[in-house]
Amino acid sequence: MSSESVVVATTTDAAMRRILWCAAVFNFGGAFLFAFPASPVGQLVGLPIPVPGIYSAILAFLVALFGAAYVWLATQPSIDRPMVTFFTIGKGGVFAIVTAFWIAGAVSGPAALTASGDLVFAILFAQWLRMR
Questions:
Q1: Fewest C-beta atoms under 10 Å: which of 26, 33, 64, 71?
Q2: Domain extents for the chain?
Q3: How far apart are CA 64 and CA 89, in angstroms?
Q4: CA geometry: angle at 31 spanning 81 and 97, to 5°?
Q5: First and final CA of the chain: distance in angstroms?
Q6: What does the alpha-carbon distance between residue 110 and residue 101 come to, in Å, rounded to a whole number?
Q7: Residue 65, CB half-sphere, CA atoms under 13 Å: how many?
Q8: How far apart are the C-alpha atoms of 28 and 65, rounded to whole Å?
């Protein structure tokens, strides 16, 4: 392997670690919104209320759990391809579901727009996978 390709791989992994940290922050923010959908920010993005507490808590927990997984992977010595594949499917799936509900008129425009962040991360994760 040439020294140039080593630099590219290192830079790419460094960029992916920053992307994982950003995805974690995005998810922790989302977890807060799902935990407190009646909050001013939750209402700004168009989350529905009232929501039974059990659903709100479980969704917030799972979104935060993914955020914690992003942090975990960002701090590992090497970035695991299968985990990034799983994250890509998860982010892409969330975007697809929200978009389908938006098209059906069951999700507000601001909520659908917020989910576009998931699409951005899915694309970034997929690009990293293609470079590997």
A1: 71
A2: 3-131
A3: 17
A4: 65
A5: 14
A6: 13
A7: 7
A8: 9
